[in-house]
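Hey forum,

I'm writing up a methods section and want to include a predicted complex as supplementary material. The small molecule is magnesium ion. I've pasted the protein sequence and the SMILES. Can someone with a working setup run it? I'll credit the forum in the acknowledgements.
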Amino acid sequence: MKITEIKIYPLSYQEKKSLFIEVFTDNGLKGLGEVGVARLAKSVISAIEHLEKRLIGEDPWESEKLWQIMFRGNFFPPGVVYSSAISAIDMALWDIKGKHEEKPVYELMGGNYHETITPYASLQPLGSSFEEYRDSLVEWAERAKNLGFKAVKSEVTMNGPYAHNGMNENDDKHTLVIESVRKALGSEVKLMVDVQYKWKTAEDALRTVKDWGEFDIYFLETPVWTDNLEDYARMHEEAPMKIAAGEWLTTSHEFKDLIEKGKVDVAQPDIGRVGGLTEAKKVSKIVDKYERIIVPHCWKTSISISATAHFAFNTPSCKFIEYLPPQLCHETLRKELANEGFEFENGLIQLPTKSGLGVELNNEAVKKYTVG
Ligand SMILES: [Mg+2]
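Reply by user p_vandermeer:
Happy to help. Structure tokens for the complex are below, copy them as they are.
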């Protein structure tokens, strides 16, 4: 089996973007992959075109060797652009291998450690005043609970560099929002909180989060900037919940620092950014060594979500993945581009049965949203 071509599809709908690829082989198979930084589409497209030249004529079964060829020999360290290009190609090669063997990808990766995976629903806050924001999160929490979700993650970001809708509310208001969400969920549903790098230092963060123990938060995501490894280590020591980070990191080398020096409890690699399934497995080995947990980041279309699910089933330390049924999402590309390669029943993701990633593209949507 030989790789013959890579087709690239940049998609856009309103302000949302996505970039996926198809890798073709000489025996008529094709694999799907998606990149984790569609915002940098132009650069990632050039990187994929550059890598394609090295891959034509190569055998998809040698995906580990091909990963090394793509990673090295670019004359500079890969960075997020190359790493995302490699991620999409690696995803597609696993899809091809699965289709060739007529087996789901998790099986080729070594089988499943879990019978089901627990997805957490990401609550999507709306509104630009404190009251609107709080009420929209409470409404989402109730909805997710009624749908059978056993875990939810709430972004609570009303100040800092990623403040929603230009808001600038103080830290006490964040505490009030979390209190209301926890009340709406009851004590049974796991609650994760993402504050999107809102504090500059662990000192600032701890002043507020030391009082969040009573809300039984499963993890707190990205309290400070990911490079502040000393601050992460301090958060790990002093915060009353697990600390999560890593959504933007590339390669297992960066995760090694995050876990070894930053002592982060929950590693969050994004399969479309970190270097694909091949590199995510290396992150999981580091996570195992330090007895941490892995909860992959994923907020893209059904292609990335399905790859993430296969990874989760194969990874012992992975207990949750980020997931919302397409019909509940605001985002058109997420809803329309493709069908997922798994079923969602009783609040749980069921073991995939289809070959490869099991994703079926909606060709109408591909045509409609592909740009230039
Ligand atoms: Mg986040």
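Some notes you might quote in the supplement: The mean pLDDT is 94. The chain has two domains: 3-102+364-369, 107-363.
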